[in-house]
């Protein structure tokens, strides 16, 4: 039994050390095809806008970060798209008028549903451009993500002001989610530490009794 604690403790520290490498994340970028279907609501320029509409514009996956677990394929190969519902994102006064649901299906059939509920920040400091950060949660059918925190960073601009072409893109980033094996190792580690504490406490009592 004396070898159990060191072994389990080693497993615990190994789990802590590799948890970053074994974590699942969502990290991909999307471009909306420029055209008349992209529009915004404002009394003047896009940096003063209170809503942005992706209506009818294909949202094409153009990049993926290290460890991305979205299952999406990037442009220019057999690229994937994601969908938004509603396509009109209203962010006046730093709040979302209604939740925005983003969904896609990964290459292995894993279905993702992302629900964006809040506005984290709005940057209007650049003329004819705006950056809006939305936050929410993401869940997938394979159970890798379950109400995991997620960010949707939307960037839109209209170089030249009203009447010029509008471009828009967004980056989708989730928090790390340890894989099941990591949770098991962490559990073993905590069990080992607890066992060690109990054993030590028992030895201390025995020493006091003597």
Classification by helices and strands = alpha+beta
- Following the backbone from N to C, one meets helices and strands in this order, namely HEEEEEEEEEEEEEH
Q: How many helical stretches?
A: 2
Largest sheet: 8 strands, antiparallel
Q: Helix proportion of residues, in percent?
A: 10-25%
The outline comes out as globular
Portion of residues in beta strands equals: 35-45%
Taking all residues together, what is the mean pLDDT? Answer: 82
Terminal CA distance = 24 Å
Number of distinct beta strands? 13
Indicate the radius of gyration in whole angstroms. 24 Å
Strand order of the largest sheet: 5-2-12-11-10-9-8-6
Low-confidence stretches: 1-21, 181-186
The total tally of domains equals 2
Q: TL;DR?
A:
The protein is of the alpha+beta class. The protein is built from 2 helices and 13 strands, in the order αβββββββββββββα.
């Amino acid at each position: 039994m004396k070898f159990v604690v060191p072994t389990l403790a080693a497993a615990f520290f190994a789990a802590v050390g590799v948890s970053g490498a074994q974590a699942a994340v969502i990290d991909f970028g999307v471009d909306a095809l420029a055209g008349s279907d992209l529009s915004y609501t404002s009394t003047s320029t896009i940096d003063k806008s209170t809503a942005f509409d992706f209506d009818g514009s294909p949202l094409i996956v153009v990049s993926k970060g290290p460890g991305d677990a979205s299952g999406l394929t990037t442009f220019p190969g057999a690229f994937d798209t994601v969908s938004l519902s509603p396509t009109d994102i209203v962010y006046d006064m730093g709040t979302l008028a209604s939740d925005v649901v983003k969904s896609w299906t990964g290459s292995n059939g894993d279905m993702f549903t992302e629900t964006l509920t809040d506005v984290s920040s709005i940057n209007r400091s650049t003329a004819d451009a705006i950056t809006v950060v939305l936050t929410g949660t993401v869940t997938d059918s394979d159970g890798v993500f379950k109400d995991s925190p997620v960010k949707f960073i939307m960037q839109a601009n209209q170089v030249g002001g009203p009447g010029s072409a509008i471009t828009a893109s967004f980056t989708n980033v989730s928090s790390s989610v340890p894989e099941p094996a990591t949770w098991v190792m962490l559990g073993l580690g905590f069990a080992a530490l607890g066992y060690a504490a109990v054993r030590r406490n028992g030895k201390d009592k025995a020493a006091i009794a003597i």
